[in-house]
């Protein structure tokens, strides 16, 4: 993998102040999995009673760690738990050795922290097809255990980076019956230099007390409008993982019906999802694609993703070209219901096209001026029904080609 | 649109010698539809008795000319016919004016050549959303008629270019019962500089005598393994059109069951399809993606297209990087059936991965050496069944970004 040479122009100014979540402690070390001289393994220790929910890549060639997590998620347990993540090696497409390596790590973590092996969730991110040097990870477990610290979540965010140009975190605190409930999350994804996969890994922690099944249904539902609603280049990792842990440390019981908690968790998930797009390979523009007036929710998503994934739309955005003809093309090819003469297209608030043609009020200079902004909205109303959806993407630039073609990974 | 500055490195050495097809004559003029100082309208006059078949874009926002052709195709008629094509303006997303402009052109051609309007097929390619200046085309019809010439098919190939870096033609001649049957075709598509859509237009002529329904079923069948099996960037034009005309001029009756004719027509269609890929925007590599051992033909196509359209695979090819991990990723994300431990991947004849891991015989230097070639084969065997499919694509380079982002269209 290449060196991280500069930070995405869409990065936030600083990593946020993340609060302590009672019941979780973190540690990170330099284990030399692949990188030298940087932290590349993170451990999170979760108190007994913590509920853990997860969502994973749907890839048919998913990694050994993902397969292991999928077997473990969905079981209730009052025991302690752990999350262990390494950067530098994805342990994907490593044949039968993949599962052996994952088990070596999770068994060692279970023994070290005295938690059931079935409650140790692992992720691996980095190069594909190389055997995971799991002994380098297990050799560091005692050191990790000795360093466990409730305030060290920022180190976890650093350790899981591969080619990310910045560490990603988000937090929200709500009040329920006069008591604070906190949520803090970290993510990696869509890094800048010579990645294999731009794998997305997300770990979110809350001190809410929650039933596992409730947490899982909430996470699965919110995932659809957050992490499943972003795309950088339409390619899907073999390792994408989202884990959410509710420790109960606040003493506040929350159910899947708690509107304020749902909103706060949604906001943390959406903010982390947007940060992944903002670190999209070569990205210079952050683009929201909003589709309204669709015949069904599925149609709205299909149209929005067709626009967000179209190389011709994404290069037009990169070129600051208000090329609405390419948006028409993307709608046309998506396969979902559309009527040329009923749809309208807006760039921000600017009505560009309607009634099957360019709008009589549209001036090309207005569109061109709008496209120079760093944050853009492409809004299509299909005029067919009431369904809508929103997805987020970035532009397709020379930077993407440089990252993925000019360097050998 | 920008200037055509250089020819694709994948272009053939010269435009082929296309034979006269008895029953068709051609003309091309500079009508100034958009370009100055170049031929931009072509007319083909088809003798009475010519059978015409067609296949068109499935876009929901297809152009006025495509909609008009679709209404007309599929009717038997012994009358004469015509094909009229303009470059420079796609007459797409031009509202109600689109149909009006198309009818103005086809009515004028019908009157000029004394053929039924229902037998005049038109295409338009170029910018989207601008009204077609149809009077510039109709003003040139008498001049076109005066120039009609059975040998002028090469001028037709030139006139339909928009941003193509070379004119495209292909031909085959077979012998049936001691008599020659000829096929000649021209195409445009996937041009080099600042296109809006990379629209593909294809016109093929044969002097075989054929029932229209037979010709249509043959063309529809062969289209699936030729023009529908190519992709440059996964985007679909609003104007893609394939028309095949059988004049009967050879006096040789051919049915849909004629194996030699089917093979020859397939070869012309495949050669033209490959030429379109060879003129792919920014292309430096011609890539065949072959999927065998699939559970079904649909699965084979889905996997092949997932690989061929993956930006990460295409940039790896551009970078001459034997990055088989990205091929695994594309198979995994496609949604079609795959088993990580049963599939194998070959670059050309080089076995790269099998049994869920890199092959013990594979040497990275062999893969790297292979990828330096201009023509590449990526072969995936899924190990699940007997179905297979092949598609063709090109790499994704800085040239693509330059063409589509750096120039305002």
UniProtKB/TrEMBL annotation, chains A, B:
**Binding positions for substrate?**
162, 188, 199, 281, 404, 409
Please provide, in alphabetical order, the Gene Ontology terms of the cellular component aspect for this entry: cytoplasm
Alphabetical UniProt keywords: Acyltransferase, Amino-acid biosynthesis, Arginine biosynthesis, Autocatalytic cleavage, Cytoplasm, Multifunctional enzyme, Transferase
So where's the catalytic machinery, residue-wise? 199 (nucleophile)
Q: Which reaction does it catalyse?
A: L-glutamate + acetyl-CoA = N-acetyl-L-glutamate + CoA + H(+); N(2)-acetyl-L-ornithine + L-glutamate = N-acetyl-L-glutamate + L-ornithine
Localisation per UniProt entry: Cytoplasm
Write the Enzyme Commission number(s) for this entry.
2.3.1.35, 2.3.1.1
Give one GO term, molecular function aspect. Answer: L-glutamate N-acetyltransferase activity
Q: Where is this site: Cleavage?
A: 198-199
Zinc among the record's keywords? no
Gene3D superfamilies noted in UniProt = ArgJ beta chain, C-terminal domain, L-amino peptidase D-ALA esterase/amidase
Q: Which GO terms describe its biological process?
A: L-arginine biosynthetic process; ornithine biosynthetic process
Q: CDD domains, from UniProt? A: OAT
Q: How does it assemble?
A: Heterotetramer of two alpha and two beta chains.
Question: What job does this protein perform?
Answer: Catalyzes two activities which are involved in the cyclic version of arginine biosynthesis: the synthesis of N-acetylglutamate from glutamate and acetyl-CoA as the acetyl donor, and of ornithine by transacetylation between N(2)-acetylornithine and glutamate.
- Designated name of the protein: Arginine biosynthesis bifunctional protein ArgJ
Q: Which organism's genome codes for this protein?
A: Shimia marina
Q: Which gene encodes it?
A: argJ
């Amino acid at each position: 993998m290449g060196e991280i040479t500069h930070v995405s122009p869409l990065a936030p100014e600083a990593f946020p102040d993340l609060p302590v979540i009672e019941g979780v402690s973190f540690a990170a070390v330099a284990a030399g999995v692949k990188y030298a001289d940087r932290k590349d393994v993170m451990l999170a220790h979760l108190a007994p009673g913590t509920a853990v929910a997860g969502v994973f890549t749907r890839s048919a060639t998913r990694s050994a760690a993902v397969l292991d997590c999928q077997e473990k998620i969905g079981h209730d347990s009052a025991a302690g738990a752990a999350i262990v993540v390494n950067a530098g090696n994805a342990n994907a497409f490593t044949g039968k050795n993949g599962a052996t390596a994952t088990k070596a790590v999770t068994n060692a973590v279970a023994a070290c922290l005295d938690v059931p092996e079935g409650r140790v969730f692992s992720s691996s991110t980095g190069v594909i097809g190389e055997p995971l040097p799991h002994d380098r990870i297990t050799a560091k477990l005692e050191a990790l255990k000795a360093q466990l610290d409730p305030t060290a979540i920022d180190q976890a965010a650093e350790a899981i980076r591969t080619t990310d140009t910045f560490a990603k975190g988000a937090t929200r605190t709500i009040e329920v019956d006069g008591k604070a409930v906190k949520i803090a999350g970290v993510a990696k994804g869509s890094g800048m230099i010579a990645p294999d996969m731009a794998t997305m890994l997300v770990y979110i922690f809350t001190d809410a007390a929650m039933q596992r099944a409730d947490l899982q249904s909430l996470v699965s539902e919110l995932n659809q409008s957050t992490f499943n609603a972003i795309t950088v280049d339409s390619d899907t990792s073999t390792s994408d993982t989202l884990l959410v842990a509710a420790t109960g440390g606040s003493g506040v019981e929350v159910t899947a019906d708690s509107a304020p908690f749902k909103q706060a968790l949604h906001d943390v998930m959406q903010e982390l999802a947007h940060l992944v797009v903002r670190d999209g390979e070569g990205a210079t523009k952050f683009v929201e694609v909003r589709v309204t007036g669709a015949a069904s929710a599925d149609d709205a998503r299909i149209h929005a993703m067709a626009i967000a994934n179209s190389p011709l739309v994404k290069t037009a955005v990169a070129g600051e070209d208000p090329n609405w003809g390419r948006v028409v093309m993307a709608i046309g090819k998506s396969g979902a219901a559309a009527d040329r003469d009923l749809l309208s297209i807006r760039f921000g608030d600017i009505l560009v096209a309607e009634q099957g043609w360019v709008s009589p009020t549209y001036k090309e200079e207005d569109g061109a001026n709008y496209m120079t902004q760093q944050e853009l909205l492409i809004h299509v109303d299909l005029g067919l029904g009431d369904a809508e959806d929103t997805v987020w993407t970035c532009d397709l630039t020379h930077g993407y080609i440089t990252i993925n073609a000019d360097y050998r990974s």
